[in-house]
Design brief:
The chain is α+β, with helices and mostly antiparallel strands. The chain has two domains: 3-140, Fructose-1,6-Bisphosphatase, Chain A, domain 1, CATH 3.30.540.10; 162-284, 3-Layer(aba) Sandwich (D-Maltodextrin-Binding Protein, domain 2), CATH 3.40.190.80. The chain has eight helices and 14 strands. Helix 1 (3-29) packs antiparallel against helix 2 and helix 6 (203-212) packs parallel to helix 7 (227-240).
Length: 288
């Protein structure tokens, strides 16, 4: 790994506790988030953002970007923080779960990916309220805090196993009623087969749970997942031994996102241990 990338990645890890505590402190002291009018939010090309998103972005700019301006480009979900033209890219979502924040639901994460020549080489996902730090260096394993993690090679039917999922929204139903009906069939079938299904509303954490073996699979039917939501978690997951593909059983060598406008996944997504991945592909092959 390039020395500069290692230095920058380590600085990000060192900043992580401060990022985590800043988000948690503001959440705990501003319970009126759930009563705020949407006029207090600004909706850009990516998603609804708050002043907290901006505050976290500024922490990365002050503590990381300003030290390495000649090397870095920032690609943040917060539009105003997209600066620089260096060869190393920092791509981050300052706050994943903004709508949870708005409703005072304590399920939040913050994600960061370091890319060299468009290839993710370092990733970090903060589970804010558990105060857990997931991270990975490419080709060097995945870690939860200081502990190396591996996915659990278990069936979706295993007792106490969780299969995480993300559903399409109502707009998808309105625009694609036939495809939505097919999704419903697949969800009903896997729900009958799996021990338990869980949707926590955060793809980043759901994928990290699979990486750590806390869950056996994550199935994303939404086709609305943005690169900022999952890129960091996918590197962590791949380093933990999961298989990444789509609901038809195709294994991805590369995750493809749309190039225009908001960078969204071009397909469905399955992140699972090898046993669960094959089970899910078999289940969904029965639906047409």
């Amino acid at each position: 790994m390039d020395d500069n990338i290692k230095i920058i990645s380590d600085e990000i890890l060192n900043l992580a506790p401060e990022i985590n505590s800043t988000i948690k402190k503001l959440f705990n002291t501003k319970k009126n988030f759930g009563k705020l009018n949407f006029e207090n939010f600004k909706s850009g090309a990516q998603d609804i953002t708050t002043e907290l998103d901006h505050q976290i972005g500024q922490m990365y700019i002050k503590n990381i970007f300003n030290r390495h301006k000649e090397l870095l480009t920032i690609d943040s979900e917060e539009n105003s923080e997209r600066i620089g033209d260096g060869k190393i890219t920092l791509r981050f979502d300052p706050l994943d779960g903004t709508k949870h924040l708005f409703k005072s639901i304590p399920i939040l994460s913050s994600t960061m990916t370091v890319l060299s020549e468009k290839i993710p080489v370092f990733a970090m996902v903060l589970d804010i309220f558990a105060e857990n730090l997931y991270h990975a260096y490419k080709d060097n394993g995945a870690f939860l805090n200081s502990r190396k993690i591996n996915t659990a090679n278990a069936s979706i039917k295993t007792e106490f196993s969780f299969t995480m999922f993300e559903s399409p929204n109502s707009k998808f139903f309105a625009d694609n009623p036939i495809e939505y009906a097919l999704y419903e069939k697949k969800l009903n079938l896997i729900t009958k087969m799996a021990y338990r299904m869980r949707n926590i509303g955060l793809s980043s954490l759901s994928i990290c749970y699979v990486a750590d073996g806390a869950a056996v699979a994550f199935v994303d039917f939404s086709k609305a997942t943005k690169i900022y939501d999952v890129e960091a978690a996918l590197l962590i997951a791949s380093e933990s031994g999961v298989i990444i593909g789509d609901i038809d059983g195709k294994v991805f060598n590369e995750i493809k996102f749309s190039n225009e406008g908001v960078k969204k996944l071009e397909s469905s997504l399955v992140v699972a241990n090898p046993i669960a991945f094959n089970e899910i592909a078999t289940i969904f092959s029965k639906v047409s």
